[in-house]
Amino acid sequence: MVEARCRIAGPADIEAIERVPLDRRVPFRSTYEVIRQAADKQGDRPAILFLHQGSADETPDITTYRGLLSRVNQAAGIVNAINPLLRPEQIAHLPDAAESRGIPGL
């Protein structure tokens, strides 16, 4: 059972929270799981409201939870981590194998 919220008024509350195993308090193993479940449950509700200028009278760009999941999936297909400990010939093969559009560098 997942506990919805924890009220912290003092050290005893923190101790009580810490007695509950993490997997009972937080059923997700990754940020991706959080976004995916939010998209399943909240779908077309706003996930992100972005104000380009930051003014109160501005109409925000709205990204729904479903749209956020779509963008995360899109980004996952574009960005591929490269282990710098690989040999150069192994690194050279990775972009083609992953069908990457580019390679970010540091």
**Oligomeric status:** single chain
Structural class based on helices, strands and sheet pairing: mainly alpha
| Overall body shape | extended
Q: Describe the strand arrangement of the main beta sheet, using strand numbers.
A: 1-2
Mean pLDDT: 84
Count the helices. How many? 5
Q: How large is the radius of gyration?
A: 21 Å
Percentage of residues assigned to helices: 40-55%
* Count of distinct strands: 2
Walk me through what this model shows:
This protein has 106 residues and is mainly alpha-helical. The chain has helices at 11-19, 22-25, 31-42, 65-78, 88-98, and strands at residues 46-50, 61-64. Helix 3 packs antiparallel against helix 4 (65-78). The longest helix has 14 residues, at 65-78.
Q: What is the topological layout?
A:
Elements: H1 11-19, H2 22-25, H3 31-42, E1 46-50, E2 61-64, H4 65-78, H5 88-98
Summed up:
The chain has helices at residues 11-19, 22-25, 31-42, 65-78, 88-98; strands at residues 46-50, 61-64. The chain is mostly helical. The protein starts with 10 loop residues before the first helix and ends in an 8-residue tail after the last helix.
Comma- or semicolon-separated keywords:
single chain, 106 residues, mainly alpha, two-stranded antiparallel ribbon, 5 helices, 2 strands, 47% helix, extended
